[in-house]
Amino acid sequence: MDNIPSYKTKKLIISFIEEKIKLELIKYNKNLQNIFNISIINYKVFSGKYQIIEKNSTKNIYQGKIYNSYTDKIIFEGEYLNGKKNGKGIEYYEDKKHTIKYEGEYLNGKRNGKGKEYYDNGNLKFIGEYLNGKKWTGKGFNDNCEIIYKIEDGKGIYKDKFKNSYGVDIYFFGEYLNGEKNGIGKEYYCERSNLNDKIFTLRFEGEYLNGKRHGKGKVYHIFKGYESHDFSDNFYEMEYLNGIMWNGKICNDKGNIIFEIKNGKGIFIEDEKCEEYTIYTKYYIRFEGEYLNGKKNGKGKEFMIISGRNSQAKPTIFEGEYLNNERKKGIEKIGASSQFLNFEGEYLYNHKIKGKEYYKDDEIYQGEYLYDKKWNGKGYNKNGEVIYELINGNGKVKEYKINNNYCDKYLIFEGEYLNGKIKKGIGYERNEFYCDYIKFEGEYLNGERNGKGKKYYFEDIIKFEGEYLNNKKWNGKYYNPYDKNFFEINNGKGNIKSYYLNEEHVIRKEGYLLNGERNGIWKEYSFYGSLVFEGEYLNGKRNGKGKEYYDNGNLKFEGEYLNGKRNGKGKEYYKKNILKFEGEYLNGKYKTGKLYNYGDVIFEGEFIEGIKWKGKGKEYYEKFNENKEKYFGGIKIKEKEDDYCYRGHVLFEGEYLEGEINGKGKEFDYDGDLIFEGEFVNGKRKEI
Known about the structure:
2% helix, globular, 1 helix, mainly beta
């Protein structure tokens, strides 16, 4: 079977995969043209992912990679045995930066042995040992690389950050047993009060069993007393069964039941956070509909609630039928008041598989989809005339971007598709918030900029005009936006300058291009014109020696780079030009060296992921107020009468091991007098 000719055939293949290998969703792409003519042992497709396993003849082991079949990005690479992950491996986040999510050991397809887990910003999240895919013994860290919990033999007090079904960050704090959430726990949303501070809003508190909500719990409303329902309380009590809502009800301020679930069946209302657009306006998705067996089953709808300046708006975004918590069939709407139909059709695993697309209620496409991509179907103009046709993801197309609030339509691509992806044609990349402003317009080949094109600073101010080769500027003119002067690029070579659009006409960056990428010495500037970096580039990334600067002009860092990050010897400074660190870096973080507190060495030794790990160091008193309690060595520090403590007073001096105070040490009071000398274990005084 070389391809998938129709929706019916696709459905049969999906069923076959579910039945035989417990796999879910198939997706073709450029690497899997004739998947069913190749041994199914070597190629497996599941949930929009595919894996390729190859034997490494030199090491006599099998190496495997798992890809996201929509983006073709690697999400896992490592060693295999008997078709499963066995040995060392690395998992990646499915984001633009391709950040490492986990690196460590596997056994029989699960994390087993030593490993490290990371946040999507690259900071360490957990280090320790895993057992059958569960964190078993180790330490967890917050975004600032501070230890926030410890577990041993699968138990302890656990803190975690994960994403809910809408992709929103949820923070958990609670009891941990047998490598899972067991006991009492709480879940929070994180909301910003301003650009720097975070506020954590309680979303759920209750009982957990084997990692799932189980037993009694309270679910808190995102909108307390939202005007459309007049909830009597800001929470409702529920009973859960294996993570499923099983029994519960909500009453209004008059005592009338708004919804009720009994034995997993009933009419239910649920709020889920969608995103924060600004610090003043937040978007939430609310579901109202039928529940059966504790899941969305039957008729229901989702609508957007906009808090803040437009708190009355409640546009419906979907209405239809659900099966096991997922959309089955229905319609999608857009517009500030949901006045326009956007899609009508069928879904599989929450992805479109068959239906019609509309623009201001005019049909613009009818056919089949594969992983939300148009696959087999026809496109129409406003007169109902066929303007393009796709067969198995191949053919000529016109693609538009539609502004959901104002329903304006903007052309983003016109040309040919191959296997559901751009083969060649004319594309228009548009500003994310101002769709009528074009960032780039030009020719594409195999999904990349190839041929003639124009890139803009903003609106109609041209930044570059010429030819591209494999997404790189190759031949053309790089313009100064404030006059008619330009820098010329020939065969990917040339000196260029890029500018900010401000009254001072500030240069943004300047340097030399080779093979269409930054090479040689480059300088980068802030929006206000101060130098922020100068140093060497190789193939588009910082490589070699370089310097970073603060906005006040003082040196921030000087040292070596590799692949865009600090690697090798370097020195880092405080903003007042006082040494902060000197030593070696690895992937942008401290590896070994000395860490200073305004001239005084506070740690010397080894670091793991930038965290003090093994060596000798000092802890200092910091400023705190009457609303905060400070502990050290497991003992509360008595506050001074003036409730103020100056930075620079030594609290502890001694040895560190595995990120904590371990070994011999000394503890001091506010006045510098010794109050304890002896052994410490895991940050606390050793009991005698």
